[in-house]
């Protein structure tokens, strides 16, 4: 339904009541804003009751307004320009405190990620990473932050980690030139989905590697190129991509791997602590 909700609205326009028609026309003209409005706010925007908005959603075939709203959000999330993001955020914010709204949205993203994450798939991804000959980590644009974070900790655990980074797809493919069966490629792809990450994941799969995707939906481009898909709720705050839930998921992945390599990991970090102390990597803080 998410991909054709606008055509469904258009096709059913003649059967709507006067109030429902106002809702439909507003969604057609401003679906990017409507997708992030509560039923009450959407009703006020077009001068109808909240119950009329809910009945409109049911009329379209949804089990309620939240389902229709989710369909709209999935449709627009990867299409919004930076300017549209600012407009949506201004509408969502209203008179609210900015800090409260942003932190509440991040908390909600983590909660939804925890509830939706398939633990069986996480276990499969952990096992694939543990048996990999080589581990390639791919993430560009804002997702590069997560890729770098993951690489930092993976390099303390494994000696076969490659962070693939560049501004050119051809150079990134060159860094993965020898990827083959037995290797694992982890692709981090969140809205707005980078075409470079998806292309590299496709290249890895064609080369026989096992592919793990960290993305926000099973319908996302990266999920369709992956053997194992780990879902993390991704939201947008103005021009900022909120990476809180995906980063938390990566934390869980690192800890799960650490649990599997518990004895070996203790020895590794004992050695690292000695090196860090000898070379004064960290400032000493007196109690």
TrEMBL record:
One of its GO terms (molecular function) is DNA-binding transcription factor activity. Keywords: DNA-binding, Transcription, Transcription regulation. Pfam families: HTH_6, SIS. Residues 125-264 form the SIS domain. InterPro entries: Homeodomain-like_sf (IPR009057), HTH_RpiR (IPR000281), RpiR-like (IPR047640), RpiR-like_SIS (IPR035472), SIS_dom (IPR001347), SIS_dom_sf (IPR046348), WH-like_DNA-bd_sf (IPR036388). Gene3D superfamilies: Glucose-6-phosphate isomerase like protein, domain 1, Winged helix-like DNA-binding domain superfamily/Winged helix DNA-binding domain. Residues 3-79 form the HTH rpiR-type domain. The keyword Transcription applies. Coiled coil: none annotated. CDD domains: SIS_RpiR. The keyword Transcription regulation applies. One of its GO terms (biological process) is carbohydrate derivative metabolic process. This is MurR/RpiR family transcriptional regulator.
């Amino acid at each position: 339904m998410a991909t054709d909700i606008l055509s469904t609205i258009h096709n059913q326009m003649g059967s709507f009541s006067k109030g429902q028609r106002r809702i439909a026309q507003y969604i057609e003209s401003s679906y990017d804003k409507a997708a992030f409005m509560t039923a009450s706010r959407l009703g006020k925007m077009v001068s109808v009751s909240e119950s009329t908005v809910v009945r409109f959603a049911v009329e379209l075939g949804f089990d309620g307004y939240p389902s229709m709203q989710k369909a709209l959000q999935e449709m627009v999330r990867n299409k919004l320009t930076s300017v549209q993001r600012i407009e949506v955020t201004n509408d969502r914010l209203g008179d609210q405190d900015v800090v409260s709204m942003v932190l509440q949205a991040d908390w909600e993203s983590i909660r939804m990620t925890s509830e939706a994450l398939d633990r069986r798939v996480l276990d499969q991804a952990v096992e694939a990473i543990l048996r990999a000959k080589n581990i390639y980590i791919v993430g560009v644009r804002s997702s590069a932050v997560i890729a770098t974070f993951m690489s930092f900790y993976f390099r303390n655990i494994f000696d076969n980690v490659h962070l693939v980074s560049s501004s050119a797809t051809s150079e990134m493919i060159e860094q993965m030139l020898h990827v083959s069966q037995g290797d694992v490629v982890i692709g981090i792809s969140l809205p707005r989905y980078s075409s470079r990450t998806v292309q590299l994941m496709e290249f890895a799969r064609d080369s026989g590697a096992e592919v793990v995707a960290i993305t926000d939906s099973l319908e996302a481009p990266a999920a369709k190129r992956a053997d194992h898909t780990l879902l993390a709720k991704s939201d947008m705050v103005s021009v900022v991509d909120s990476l809180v839930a995906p980063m938390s998921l990566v934390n869980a992945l690192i800890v799960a791997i650490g649990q599997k390599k518990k004895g070996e990991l203790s020895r590794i970090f004992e050695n690292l602590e000695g090196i860090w102390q000898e070379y004064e990597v960290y400032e000493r803080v007196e109690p």
